[in-house]
Predict the structure.
Amino acid sequence: MIKAQRGTKDILGDEILIWQKIENSAKEVFQNACFNRIQTPIFEATELFNRGVGDSTDIVNKEMYTFCVGGINKDETSITLRPENTAGVVRSYIEHNIQRQSPPQKFWYFGPMFRYERPQAGRQRQFHQVGVEMFGVADAAADAEVIMTAVELLKSLGLNDLEVELNSLGCKNCKDDYKTSIKKVLEPYLEELCDDCKMRFEKNPLRILDCKNENCQKIFEKEEVKKVIFGDYVCEECKDHFDKLTSYLDNLNIKYSKNKLLVRGLDYYNRTVFEIKSNLLGSQSAVCGGGRYDGLVEMLGGQPTPAIGFAMGVERLASLMEKIEPQKIDYYIVSNNTIEAMKLAQKLRRNGKTADYCTQNKKFTKQLEKASKVANKALILGEDEINQGFYSVKDLNTSEQNKVFDFEML
Ligand code: HAM
């Protein structure tokens, strides 16, 4: 038997009801906040992620589904299944010259992403993200708008007790100072760091702070290292930006905590980064991750454009949500005349009702049994009903039965 690939999952049965709720709530919350839906391709040029996500990240180094298409005598093109959607949305933003329109430009998306990770609870190889990207506003109001939108979506899904964690990575200048100080203080311990951190030391020292390795954690606990990690390194402008954001959030009554160790796993961030976590999710506790990426549009060939966004993992959201009971349909048509039942179902469905009927010519009693399982009402269409032009409607909750002569009264 051929089975689903490791790290992938079929979504069906009761679970699909939860997924539909997530997608419908996202649509409502994002549309109310004036984000427009965007759908970008599932594969892109590999170069987009190498440059966009960053070639020092685990995503680009270890986790991309990359392959070459073309073949003998054709141009070989390296393409990659998208591991995330920010780079794709930025590519689309530049390609369609959306920056000509007056800012802000706000987009939302929902779709599959692919990362070749070691599968475990909450971590898959094909997973789904629902997220937003907002372009054109440098002020911290955009950061607050995006975080508020994330919190509203979580609230609309009934997920209230989640922790918002915030940090500022600073701008290019202060970030570089911070990186230099971290390298300096960690240099004497370089040999003791794990292999990943040794590589990060050269390519992206901030990512070292995210390491969960026990040995590395012990090094971070040393007084002189702690002093640098938790030191005040962001410049005045970045500090003002962060203070403005926290004051907006205070006014919106959005609770948060500051986490200096929050650095995120993608290279494009500057200033605000944030995650929303649940302590019910074990080690993969983040349901949402996001931040500001003011340099990315320019880096990918567009005009300098400030931007910020987030993405939530749909599987992780779904695992936190309560089971949804399937709803009964409006009518189950009980009839031995398949053509008449079919025509009536067509008419009811066109009228916005949920309706079904028997396509297998089963006995009347079997059809009634089915009706009582799946529907609120049975619509009986026997010979009398067809000849005399009425419908017998049985309320399956009360067992009351009525004759209805006018279709509009159904
Ligand atoms: P990310 O933190 O890599 O950020 O992913 C966002 C969320 O996707 C995570 O918090 C998690 O819920 C979910 N997720 C990530 N990887 C997996 C996985 N292997 N299995 C299940 N769920 C997963 C980004 O992707 C950025 N593009 C977010 C962003 C948008 N930043 C700015 N705009």
